[in-house]
Amino acid sequence: MRLSRAVLYLALVWGACPAVATAQVYIGRSVPHAGTVEVSGGGTFSGGYDLGSISADETRNTGTGTGPFVLFTATSRTKPTLGLQARLGVFAAKSASLEAGIQLARPILSSQLSGDAESSADVTATETLTRLVVDGSLVLHLSGLSFAGGKGVPFVLGGGGYIRELHEKNEVIETGREYHAGAGLHLWFGQGKHRLGLRTDVGVSVRNGGADFSETKHTVPTAGISLAYLF
Amino acid sequence: MRRLATIVLTVAIAGAASVPASAYLKLGTRLGTRTVTLKWSQMPIRYFVTDRGTTGVTSTQLQQAVSRSFSSWEAVPSATTSSEFAGFTLANPSTGDGATVIGFQNRPELDRTLGATSFMVDTTTGAILEADIFFNSAFPWSVAAQGEANTFDLESIALHEIGHLHGLAHSALGETELRSGGRRVIAAEAVMFPIAYATGNISGRTLKADDIAGIGDIYPAASFTRDTGSISGKVTKGGKGVLGAHVVAFDMRTKTLVGGFSLSDDGSFVIAGLDPGPHIVRVEPLDDGDVESFFDLTLNVDINFRPQFYDKIVVVPRGGGTSGVELKVVAK
């Protein structure tokens, strides 16, 4: 439902652009146009998410109580993580580009083990995952909302991707999908056709699969900051 | 010339196993310094059923319950076992006649034994030559589809005994409590747990992950090697190996439990037949009243340590193993 709403917002913004595009423009002689390329690289943040609580159950004998006998309970979570990203975008029009990205992070999967039937001390068991996300996005550059003399250009984006997570020792690979939507800002330096800039974005990513044994979808906040180069 | 030995394993309310476990849930026999796994070298396993029923169970119903139990083991996709009903016989299930016989026997002196499996094995190879199962007709039995109050479910006990017949030893995946008259099972997660469920209970008709891992370990199908993995490591206390520690792997995806034991003086253990993916590993000592159900009492099984978890999530690869899991336990 959230994703559908984000797509709707994108469509509305897209529809609004032509009306305001003439009010403010990118600074400099060469505004982005079809064929302009943007490359960027920097850091990302991905929020953590709960994987729920599961119990190690044994089958009860008659007359010894109700429900399964719980040997212990494991409450698991993927912790928030920082990572690296690289993106390549190609403008299809002055205000729209198609972007491919790759993100690498090493989130920690933790499981709080408690309620042991024989009073084992509670322990948090962990492992470090290696997460690779390859995604594609449609980016709408809101040049009509640019500021600082055209140096600051907001954008919105949405897309989907493929998640590949490796457990420790890299012997087990789990795959999944993600869909994302967000908004951000380009701050360009200089006025030439080739220009350097700073790119920041925030958003949400809806994920399922990967090293997620809860087998449910999770919505996680995301953020990124990169150096960008336009040419 | 084959050297033959008779090995008797008893199961029920109070079990008395007289053989060492060669692996986490396999039967074994000592050959010099080596332990060999007991297993059938040829399939199908041909068996006779004693043409004698007991109160509430005809010989035909006995044969049908036994057949269903064999079928349950044979349905495990990661294992290759098969059996053949050779016919009814007037012979008792006694070792040494060359025939595998399953039937009732009235053994009132064994007042805590519902059933037992005895073997004749080639002790040079571990090959099972003959196995006999008796169900103690001193107890009340039933084959009712939904179980019957105040009677033991024959199919559940047959499934357990036929697990032994295949070479499986007892599993420690269960909890018991001491009551007047003996131990009572509170809960179990393996058909091969040594103490039976109460009368009227038919939970023992369904194989659990631990049983499935065990039969696959003894008679592996191609999928066992290809699709499952293992966890191996050591249990140590004060830097020394712990023998007889019960190590449990909990599959976080399937929520199933598979157990094994540290089986050497250096505390080494291997749990095979695990589904790929993340597992929680936990170690506990056997209950002091249970040791003889699993190990030869001449072995120096250590039960003086606290249960504890391993502090890493252990990920099992498909068709491979994760090694180096060291569980450092402390004395109680």
- Structural class call of chain B reads mainly beta
Task: Give average pLDDT of chain B, whole number.
Answer: 87
How large, in whole angstroms, is the Cα Rg of chain A?
A: 23 Å
Radius of gyration of chain B: 19 Å
Q: Uncertain spans of chain B, ≥5 residues at pLDDT below 50?
A: 1-24
In whole angstroms, how far apart are the ends of chain A?
A: 37 Å
Strand order of the largest sheet of chain A: 1-4-5-8-9-10-11-12
Largest interface: A-B, 39 and 42 residues
Number of helices of chain A: 1
SSE-based structural type of chain A: mainly beta
Largest sheet of chain A: 8 strands, antiparallel, barrel
Total strand segments of chain A: 12
- Spatial shape of chain A: elongated
Tell me the layout of helices and strands.
The complex is a heterodimer of chains A (231) and B (332).
Chain A: H1 2-20, E1 37-46, E2 49-60, E3 69-78, E4 81-93, E5 96-105, E6 108-114, E7 123-128, E8 130-141, E9 152-166, E10 173-189, E11 195-209, E12 218-230
Antiparallel strand pairs in A: 1-4, 1-12, 2-3, 3-6, 4-5, 5-8, 6-7, 8-9, 9-10, 10-11, 11-12
Chain B: E1 4-11, E2 16-17, E3 21-23, E4 26-31, E5 34-37, E6 45-50, H1 59-74, E7 83-89, E8 101-105, E9 115-122, E10 127-136, E11 141-142, E12 152-153, H2 154-166, E13 174-179, E14 182-188, H3 209-218, H4 222-227, E15 229-237, E16 240-241, E17 246-251, E18 257-261, E19 268-274, E20 277-284, E21 308-309, E22 314-316, E23 321-329
Parallel strand pairs in B: 6-7, 6-8, 8-10, 11-12, 15-23
Antiparallel strand pairs in B: 1-2, 1-9, 3-4, 4-5, 9-10, 13-14, 15-16, 15-19, 17-18, 17-20, 20-21, 20-22
Helix pairs in contact in B: 1-2
